[in-house]
Amino acid sequence: MTQPDAATVLRPHAETEFALELAALAANDTRAKPPHWLLSPWSVVTYLMGGTLADGTVITPKYVGPRRLIEVSVATLATDRALLLLGLPGTAKTWVSEHLAAAISGNSTLLVQGTAGTAEEAVRYGWNYARLLAEGPSPAALVPSPVYRAMEQGSIVRIEELTRMPSDVQDALITVLSEKVLPIPELGGEMQALSGFNLIATANNRDRGVNELSSALRRRFNTVVLPSPATVEEEVLIVAQRVSAMAGMLSLPAVTTSAEEIRRVVTVFRELRSGQSEDGRIKFKTPSGTMSTAEAISVMVQGIAMAAHLGDGTLSFDALLGGIESTVVKDPVHDAVVWREYLDSLARR
User: Fold this and answer.
1) CATH architecture of 6-225
2) pTM for the structure as a whole
């Protein structure tokens, strides 16, 4: 299949977008590397958290938050334990898992997206039924899953929204994670994982109708909880960085955007998320949604697009209020009341 030009791709993979940084890290990396890792654990942490290399190359931070969480995540992947990134929606679980895979294996595309309809073949293997009927079970008829390919290559595989997958599909991972083997009874054999193979899963605790992990499966993960940004300044920095990057990817015309407008949006999201004003003096009802940092980023990007294409090129807070309202009011009954009460409080302040 013909690959599109990287410059025209809407969202390049991490290993493509940050190829120069990864190459600079590899060139300056003198520390020990686990088998089949492209970078040492120290360099992987530097790639995620940012820093300046010996040759002066500046590595941009991919994650803004406690360094210890990234260090624990990388150390886990250097062992035989799988990594579970847990947290509320919008706390950068997918973002972190993608960049970890890109830095360790140079390939973040070995991915299983967990849904209620995910079948067991997505984490084990399937069959090319035309060849299966014509030839019977054979290696040529087998269709490997991302997990199978990661075991074969000794690389990192990602599973998104693990708790949304049916329980029987989740449990298909137990043998893979404990024995590092994928049995193939139809061929009378098995796939043994090469050194360097590991798995990163993500899950959140706000979705309804999720399938809790069995105790047997949970024991095979080291769990790292990614928190919401601790301070307004930290969240403003995250939103500003991601909005700038996304505006560039979407080729949006330049728009006059002040840091104060970003801070106002972040403040609204934090107050509604916590149920109280910044100074703690006023209490609010909380909406049914999560009011995550990811949604704040979406509101800002939408506002920039409107100001650039439908406005005068200047982003104002009034223009952003419509996007905030559509994010807050998920339930037209409960959330509409929450939003009206919050606007009354905002007007009084």
Assistant:
1) 3-Layer(aba) Sandwich (3.40)
2) 0.89
